[in-house]
Amino acid sequence: MGHPIIHVVRDADVVAQQAADIVGEVVRAHPTAVLALPTGRTPIELYQKLGVRHRRGELSFAHTQIFNLDEWVGVAPASPGSYARFMEEHFYAHVDVPAPQRHIPNGLAPNLGVECERYEKLIRQSGGIDLAVLGIGSNGHIGFNEPGTPEDSCTHVVLLSTLTRRANAYAFPRGQVPHRAITMGIGTILDARQILLLAVGSTKANALTKALFGNVTPSVPASFLQHHANVTVIADTAAAMLFPRSSAASYS
Ligand code: PGA
User: Fold this and answer.
1) pLDDT 10s digit of each residue in the chain, 252 long?
2) What crossing angle do the helices spanning 12-29 and 44-55 adopt, rounded to 10°?
């Protein structure tokens, strides 16, 4: 059982700054670190800050291995909305990760089950994840592990909830969000040596509060993070607005 370190900060900019500090510390301490990285709106400012630090010569990702948490099924890497394209635009174009060290599930694989096994095995062969950076869905998902996903799940294909598909409609032309995705499992994420969870905005307040202070339950997948010994949470004041008063969060 772990006690997450919880930082509540002013706004999204400070969330990104503090997250970039933690990613930077891990990569400087272990230049060959294996990172699991998220997509979505939350990490965009983090990637901008990491790009700036790289350009200033403060940070190199040249020897890291990067594994994306998830990818849509049936979306080609170059298509709008694909997470491969998201990573290229927001992160890889601005840092120095060599192409062979960038990993993402192949949502076009002819046999998705085999692809999930390949991805899970590749993570293990790389030595396991040193730092997993996560966002949280307003339904409490991490990666695309929707409510009901078991704690010991490996990389798998998921049927996405209506809520999740609606929340991602902005990224697809005419809002045609795929119905399925490949995601690292909750077990895959919990195997990471360190976890950093980021939450911005009031739409996350309910899920984040349940995840950190509620019962550990598959109906709130992020609540399984309570079983991990090294979790840091960085939330803005809006995402933290429902935290109990007695919580051990630090406010700055
Ligand atoms: P968001 O997505 O960063 O776009 O809010 C987070 C998530 O659904 O995990």
Assistant:
1) 568 999 999 999 999 999 999 999 999 999 999 999 999 999 999 999 999 999 999 999 999 999 999 999 999 999 989 999 999 999 999 999 999 999 999 999 999 999 999 999 999 999 999 999 999 999 999 999 999 999 999 999 999 999 999 999 999 988 899 999 999 999 999 999 999 999 999 999 999 999 999 999 999 999 999 999 999 999 999 999 999 987 788 998
2) 50
The C-alpha atoms of residue 191 and residue 124 are separated, in whole angstroms, by 10
Q: Is the CB of 136 under 6 A from ligand 1?
A: yes
Model's pTM, two decimal places? 0.97
Ligand 1 mutation pick, 136, 144, 189, 203, max ligand atoms within 8 A of CB:
136
CA distances from 213 to 3, 6, 39, 149 (A): 10, 11, 25, 19
Distance CA(131)–CA(103), nearest Å, equals 15
Query: Ligand 1 pocket, 137 CB below 6 A?
Result: yes
